[in-house]
Design brief:
heterotrimer; A: mainly alpha; ABC transporter involved in vitamin B12 uptake, BtuC; 14 helices; C: alpha/beta; Rossmann fold; 2 domains; six-stranded parallel sheet; four-stranded parallel sheet
């Protein structure tokens, strides 16, 4: 064991990249932030950091939940619908003069609603054996339908104290969303140190092998949909506390970006490989791309195209690296 | 290390898949400190019997007892709890997890409810040490499984089974991808485990290994346990005899006289790679050359290599012309056709029409725009020739029976009138009636002068149809059987790697 | 040689003077935030801002730099637009909010940082935000009143509305209901959403024609009116119901075609002007120049709205409109002029109107 030859530095890098697939994404994000900073002097000042993190936070929570589903070999196309549904519950049930008790109760109810939605998805996928993409796409209409039922038109207003607390850095120094992000990271850190982590990756990497070894694959997959529903509900809480209101279509445009962020973060859509850390970085990449384009004053007609091109390039980078490595061999 | 004693018996185990009986009367008996070999020809039911013991397959009938208590395993997990763990032939490893994570999956060492990675590394290193010197030093507990070569995967699989601390271990073809050094190491370990009181069931194709390792052998034939012998008191000849006893010999049609003067169509010299070792053969026009041996000995790889789908080293000539195919389309241009064994995944577009499937490789011949009338006429003619039973040429292939679907696979190549036909176990899962029509067709093609290389997992077909048979073992041609030498005893003996 | 030196000196002088002149001018950086690009109305809206900015630069001797954030996005995306405008340090913001309530707090943040915010087209309940909009209820009341008068206060009508739950639709339908309350002889026999979509409007009208035995009138709005007209032309019933119309170029042209075949045909187009964007810019520049809004002029549900009068009502015969307070306004027949204007415009162009600087100044405290 002690006589191993010292590995070359490139191999060392290769090892690090295969161990932490989000390193590519981190490099990409740093590059984008450097560009962004060169166009925006106050990028790292408190107001800008707080604002960016607040806008990104719901997407980060969605992507975090999505990551676990994808690692276990599934996909959840209903996260936007669940977000809309929980947003509608929160906005209608927390009046602007709500007591703290009421506030906490409604948050608990919306988290339960998210879990119930996840349970429905998990039941369809793991026990009825339906295709994940079709099942969750179909259920997304149920959830957004419920959202419209609860809240037919945008509205509702949370207590000012709530939004003021959420929108303003604690002690004029620490943005609340940053604390939530730290919370997600701690959650992931702890999860990856449990046996569930092995089951999660095992089920996604090769379900038959994991099953033959005694991994309860169905239960693991069911749990990932539960977690995804819970994280979508948390995303709704973050969104509602941020803007203080509800919109039954709040999540309509949020599902696909959550998948894109997961992939940008180095998680394989085929399952078995990935990290929530990468997905958080993926959301930051998507947000930074849009900010860079904004500050570079790219003509508004060209912006959707530029936006899409950069995302495609970002998605292709790991593939290009792998191609180069294959060709060298 | 002392292992708690165990005694396992199986009596009258039956397993049916639909109407097919895979095992009609499985019996075995093994106890602590004993190595039992299970052997039998292809389809004899030995794998099914092994899977019943490990809980992968639930028997329809029969009596399974551990230490005299009747048991029923609903899953591999249940069997493991009873102290039985298996080394599978189809690997049960998860590619994206590391060596350590795979070995300890579902029984990870924990500390305060979280993974104790240091302990996991330590224990894994201890296990890997059992094979140190027989594999790369760089293999560490942290290595991802998907980066390992097949032999090291197999070793990890063995260590994984061992990590459960079993009282009984089943090694199902565990040596197939190991090199001789690794096999030696494994056998030393098995000896050690045996002395520690473990019971071992050893399923193998290799007669030589059985005689080295086993204490006794149970032979299966046609789904039935036909006898158990103590190794010390038996011979290879006796075991082979048990495996084939009572199976009748086939009347073979005599090779045509013209064969002697027929030109050599295919010449293969020293083909190596993808598990093949120095394969050489010659095939004349109008000759039906069989390839036999146990399944998975390189037969499919050889055919795929000749078809340009696998890259190998060596020298191949077709009609005296050097043939270096980089892609199946190169092979097709030279008049080579391959009929694959797995129809659904390799040969057919199941939901498309019969005509489309028949013409798939040939559309080029019909110009732009496609001369549809002619394509239909040719398709109908082939269907007629093959006596295909179908609603119409426009019916989807998945509306056909297995035999007729196989005819479509064959028909699509016949439309190209190949000079060299490669058949990769084409009658697997085909009913008897369709088989005999298929044999007739092969004979017709042979009479027309087509050179045919025919791999079959069905020994009867090889014995009944072929002019010569090459028996493959471990990727090499182990024996060439022809004339009187082409008989069942010789075929089975050569398949098992038995001497003489 | 000497000659060349002179030329160089002259150029230098011009450049130096030019720089001097520029630096003497006030520069306003104004951010525009728009969350929907799929309509000609929004395109005209932005065009109006650009045109009026150029006009103001000329008239006031100032520089206006426009930073336009315009893309299809949701509330979160528009919040990011506003944050980027704030971070860029713009002097003022004009926003057409996709979700007025969801943007409220972020717009208040902008105001708190000393950036005046003008919301056009939609009213925002934000402290310090100034809304510059038309009165959507009044907009709907004019055509509803016209329809009721045309019917002589008697008959069966159908209503085809926009997105149910959208604030603008809610305001408009409230206006329609207020007017209809004055005419007990008018019965609403059908009410359906056409989703502000021409094809859906046409489908809904065709269904009404097929399923209802008698329809005397149709009240609808925006692009759906063209769909209704198409449905009528296709079905061509013996007696056409009287239908409200709109002010888009393609509708006006079709109106002209129908009149040629059927001289009795009448409808009404009340302009919902993209010009409010121009009005909003003028209000913003006034604020930036230190003028004070006359508190008397502020109205609306949140008390922070400047209502822009409706600039144009297209009718082919004079129409005397009575508002809810009983004030009368006469809209003179102007269809021929509108038709002439529409003929030169792209089909989705909305006939427009905007306030002059004097009219905008009237919102402010006189100096």
């Amino acid at each position: 064991m002690t006589t191993r030859t010292a590995p070359s530095s490139t191999r060392q890098f290769g090892k690090a990249f295969s161990r932490y697939p989000w390193l590519y994404s981190l490099i990409m994000l740093v590059v984008l932030l450097v560009i962004n900073r060169s166009l925006q002097d106050n990028l790292f000042e408190l107001f800008a950091v707080n604002g960016n993190l607040r806008v990104w936070l719901p997407a980060m929570l969605l992507a975090a939940g999505q990551t676990m589903v994808v690692i276990a070999g599934g996909i959840d196309m209903s996260v936007g619908g669940i977000l809309s549904m929980c947003n509608a519950i929160l906005a209608t049930q927390i009046p602007s003069d709500a007591t703290a008790e009421r506030f906490i109760t409604v948050i608990a109810i919306s988290l339960l609603a998210g879990l119930a939605a996840g349970a429905l998805n998990g039941f369809g996928v793991t026990y009825l054996r339906l295709q994940p993409i079709v099942t969750t796409y179909a259920t997304s209409f149920i959830f957004s339908g419920i959202a419209l039922q609860i809240l037919p038109e945008p509205g509702g207003r949370l207590p000012r104290d709530v939004t003021t607390f959420f929108r303003n850095p604690i002690g004029d120094a620490v943005p609340v969303p940053a604390l939530v992000i730290v919370g997600i990271l701690i959650f992931w850190y702890v999860l990856t140190r449990t046996r569930f982590r092995q089951y999660l990756f095992g089920s996604g990497s090769k379900a038959e092998a994991a099953y033959a070894t005694g991994v309860p694959v169905s239960r693991v997959r069911f749990t990932t949909y539960l977690l995804s529903g819970l994280f979508a509900a948390l995303a709704a809480v973050a969104l509602t506390m941020g803007n203080g209101t509800g919109n039954p279509r709040a999540g309509d445009l949020m599902t696909l970006p959550s998948v894109v962020a997961v992939v940008l973060g180095g998680t394989a859509l085929s399952g078995g490989r990935g990290s929530v850390i990468g997905s958080l970085i993926g959301v930051a990449i998507l947000g930074s791309i849009s900010n860079v384009l904004s500050f570079a004053q790219i003509d508004r007609w060209v912006r959707p195209l530029t936006d899409a091109l950069i995302i495609v390039v970002a998605l292709a980078v790991p593939g290009v690296f792998a191609l180069v490595r294959r060709m060298r061999r | 290390m002392k292992i708690a004693p165990i005694e396992l018996t199986v009596q009258r185990a039956v397993k049916r898949y639909g109407g097919v009986v895979a095992l009609s009367n499985g019996n075995l008996d093994v106890r602590s400190g004993e190595v039992l070999a299970l052997l039998g020809a292809n389809g004899s039911g030995k794998s099914t019997l092994a899977k019943i013991i490990t809980g992968v397959v639930a028997p329809n009938e029969g009596d399974l007892r551990v230490d005299g208590q009747a048991v029923r395993f609903s899953s591999p997990h249940a069997a493991r709890k009873a102290g039985i763990s298996a080394v599978y032939q189809e690997l049960s490893l998860v590619p994206d997890l590391t060596v350590a994570e795979n070995i300890w999956l579902t029984h990870e060492p924990l500390r305060a409810g979280t993974l104790d990675r240091r302990e996991m590394q330590r224990r894994t290193a201890d296990l890997l040490a059992l094979f140190s010197g027989a594999m790369r030093d760089s293999l560490s507990p942290e290595t991802s499984i998907h980066t390992l070569p097949p032999d090291e995967k197999q070793i990890v699989e063995i260590l994984k089974a061992l990590s459960f601390g079993p009282r009984l271990m089943i090694l199902d073809e565990a040596t197939a991808s190991l090199d001789s050094r690794q096999v030696d190491r494994l056998f030393n370990l098995v000896g050690q485990w045996k002395r520690d009181g473990m019971a071992i069931v050893f399923v193998s194709h290799r007669m030589e290994e059985i005689f080295r390792l086993a204490d006794k052998a149970t032979v299966l034939r046609n789904g039935e346990s036909v006898g158990t012998r103590a190794i010390a008191e038996t011979t290879e000849r006796e075991l082979v005899g048990l495996m084939i006893e009572g199976m009748h010999e086939f009347e073979r049609r005599p090779p045509s006289a013209a064969l002697a003067s027929a030109p050599v169509r295919l010449k293969v010299e020293h083909v190596t790679g993808h598990g093949l070792h120095e394969v050489s053969l010659e095939l004349c026009d109008g000759e039906l050359l069989g390839i036999g041996g146990l399944q998975g000995q390189g037969q499919s790889e050889l055919l795929l290599a000749l078809f340009g789908a696998l890259r190998v080293s060596g020298h191949v000539t077709i009609s005296g012309e050097e043939a270096r195919f980089k892609h199946p389309k190169d092979a097709m241009q030279k008049g080579v056709a391959l009929v694959p064994g797995d129809r659904a995944s390799e040969g057919l577009l199941m939901i498309r029409s019969i005509l489309e499937n028949l013409q798939l490789p040939s559309w080029r011949e019909y110009g732009v725009p496609i001369r549809m009338k002619k394509a239909e006429r040719d398709g109908a003619q082939v269907a007629e020739e093959l006596r295909m039973v179908m609603a119409s040429l426009d019916a989807p292939v998945n509306s056909l029976s297995g035999g007729n679907a196989q005819k479509v696979v064959l028909g699509k190549w016949l439309l190209r009138s190949p000079h060299l036909l490669l058949l990769n176990d084409p009658t697997k899962g085909v009913d008897v009636g369709a088989k005999s029509e298929f044999y007739e067709l092969l004979n017709q093609l042979r009479d027309r002068g087509t050179a045919i290389l025919f791999y079959s997992s069905d020994d009867d077909e090889l014995l009944g149809l072929c002019d010569r048979v090459l028996v493959m073992h471990d990727g090499a041609v182990r024996a060439e059987l022809a004339g009187d030498g082409l008989n069942r005893t010789a075929l089975v003996a050569a398949s098992m790697g038995a001497a003489g | 040689m000497r000659h060349k030196m002179l030329v160089v000196a002259a150029i230098l002088a011009i450049v130096v003077l030019g720089i001097g002149a520029v630096s003497a001018q006030e520069t306003y950086t104004i951010g525009i935030s728009n969350s929907f690009v799929g309509s000609e109305w929004r395109t005209q809206m932005i065009q109006n801002i650009e045109d009026t900015a150029a006009e103001l630069e000329e008239a006031l001797g100032i520089d206006i730099e426009l930073v336009i954030e315009s893309e299809d996005t949701d509330a979160a995306g528009q919040e990011q637009q506003i944050l980027n405008l704030i971070n860029r340090g713009v002097d003022g913001i004009i926003v057409n909010p996709g979700d007025a309530e969801a943007l409220r707090l972020t717009l208040e943040d902008a105001v708190a940082q000393g950036i005046p915010v003008i919301s056009i087209d939609q009213e925002v309940d934000g402290e310090g935000v100034v809304n510059v909009v038309i009165d959507q209820s009044e907009w709907a009341r004019i055509s509803a009143r016209w329809l009721a008068e045309q019917l002589g206060g008697e008959g069966k009508i159908v209503l085809i509305e926009g997105f149910v739950g959208h604030p603008a639709n809610t305001a408009r339908m409230t206006g329609v209901e207020e007017v209809l309350a004055d005419y007990p002889g008018i019965e609403v026999v059908g009410r359906e959403t056409g989703s502000w979509d021409q094809a859906t409007g046409q489908q809904v009208m065709s269904d009404f024609l097929a399923s209802l035995p008698e329809i005397d009138g149709v009240w609808t709005q925006d692009g759906m009116a063209f769909g209704v007209l198409n449905a009528l032309r296709t079905a061509n019933p013996d007696v056409w119901p009287i239908a409200s119309g709109e002010a888009r170029a393609d509708f006006i042209q079709a109106w002209g075609e129908v009149v040629e075949e059927n001289p009795d045909f009448q409808t009404i187009g009340v302009v919902n002007p993209p010009g409010v964007a121009s009005d909003g810019l003028r209000v913003l520049v006034n604020l930036l120049q230190g003028k004070m809004i006359d508190a008397e002029q502020l109205a609306g549900p949140y008390g922070n709205t400047l209502y822009v009068p409706l600039p144009l009502v297209i009718v082919s015969e004079d129409f005397t409109y009575t508002d809810m307070e009983g004030n009368e306004t006469v809209f003179e027949a102007n269809f021929d002029e509108a038709l002439a204007e529409a003929a030169e415009m792209p089909s989705a162009y909305t006939l427009d109107g905007m306030l002059t600087q004097e009219e905008v100044d009237a919102f402010f405290v006189a100096e």
